[in-house]
Amino acid sequence: MRPRAPAPPGGPRRPARRAPFGNSRMPLPGPPPLNQADPQSGTGSGAPAGEDPAGRMTGGTHMSVLKRVGMTAMAVAALVVPAGVVVGTAGPAAAKAATTQGCPYGAVCIYPQNAGWNGGHPSHFYYSYGAHNLSNMVGVHRIYNNQSGGATMRTCTGYNGTGCQGYLPANNYIDKDMTPINSITLQR
């Protein structure tokens, strides 16, 4: 075994390995070997990293960049995905959102007068786009837009969607005095 040169002032020297062809030497990529003893912390095996007579690296931990990246990705995945969870691709059934406060996904719901969420029991459900005429709806009612894809809802003072006011975006609600309101519209 050849004698080793003293370590440079900036830290231990990285060992070199033989190039695939010829006798030239090329530096080993990556951090220095992990088995060198750390005199301050007392860690490491203390066995020197070097070469055997055939020029193969001995000691230390040397792995390819791809292997390191793969191991890091696996470690991150293990932290992110809890044990026992099955991970798969989302199909059409998985894309459907849940009912919120008793209002089915894709609907606009109106709750009874002065009842807030009414324990998750809306009194009126509207699914189709266009105008919907209302009758006998007075006082303050909560309206929840549980539509998808940016669909909005409007309240209108006239019948058949005339004299409309504002836009209620998807996944929002409003407490509205419905006394002057005679129709609502649902639109994309």
TrEMBL record:
- Biased composition regions of type Pro residues, renumbered to the chain: 1-12
| Highest taxon of source | Bacteria
Q: Where is this region: Disordered?
A: 1-60
Q: What is this protein called?
A: Peptidase inhibitor family I36
In its UniProt entry, the species of origin is given as Streptomyces nigrescens
